[in-house]
């Protein structure tokens, strides 16, 4: 059977937007937010405002409109949140793709699908408002997750509502409602949901990494930013 990674890669033939508006592939700049980035040492990562300024300056210096990155990235910035930084969890490896654009930017569905579930994951450092889509394409079922949305994005949603590729799905939230982060979309692909509803781990511990990487391949195989 074809691997899930190869399946995702073949679903789209080129750049597939998940942010609405006039963004082109050339508007995106890759950003490294791992523990290997020395610029993060100068930053007060506990401050969402300071992080927003850091992202804005990074984009200005590269004359870009959006930043992306973060898949399978070991990050120290999660140390600020008890959700991740505790003896039981010890989660610090990011397995989604982050797309850094302004608050209230439009989020669009990259593929045909339907609403699987949604909820406000309101813990400090969590996703905040989150939507999960279910897709059944080319004989295979899988899911996509959209985190750090505005609370308004969850209004009037109904499980099972169909969406088409390019449809407006939501908007990004600001730090007051998105888990206290600089505005960005957490986008993740899952082959299996493991009975989870409105939520799925996007940051995992090293001991579980192999399983999660198999179930959640690089979302950029699909988006091709």
TrEMBL record:
It holds the Pfam family Peptidase_M23. Keywords: Signal. GO terms for molecular function: metalloendopeptidase activity. Residues 93-192 form the M23ase beta-sheet core domain. This is Peptidoglycan DD-metalloendopeptidase family protein.
């Amino acid at each position: 059977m074809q691997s899930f990674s190869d399946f995702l890669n073949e679903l789209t033939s080129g750049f597939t937007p998940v942010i609405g508006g006039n963004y082109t592939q050339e508007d995106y700049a890759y950003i490294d937010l791992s523990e290997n980035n020395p610029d993060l040492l100068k930053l007060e990562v506990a401050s969402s405002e300071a992080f927003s300024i850091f992202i804005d300056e990074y984009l200005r210096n590269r004359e870009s409109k959006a930043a992306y990155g973060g898949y399978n990235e070991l990050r120290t910035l999660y140390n600020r949140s008890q959700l991740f930084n505790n003896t039981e969890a010890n989660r610090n490896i990011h397995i989604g793709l982050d797309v850094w654009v302004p608050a209230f930017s439009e989020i669009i569905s990259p593929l045909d699908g339907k609403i699987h579930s949604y909820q406000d994951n309101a813990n400090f450092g969590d996703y905040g408002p989150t939507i999960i889509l279910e897709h059944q394409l080319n004989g295979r079922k899988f899911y996509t997750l959209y985190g750090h949305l505005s609370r308004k994005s969850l209004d009037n949603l109904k499980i099972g509502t169909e969406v088409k590729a390019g449809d407006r799905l939501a908007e990004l939230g600001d730090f007051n409602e998105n888990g206290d982060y600089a505005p960005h979309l957490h986008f993740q692909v899952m082959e299996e949901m493991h009975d989870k509803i409105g939520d799925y781990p996007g940051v995992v511990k090293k001991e579980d990494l192999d399983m999660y990487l198999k179930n959640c391949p690089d979302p950029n195989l699909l988006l091709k930013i």
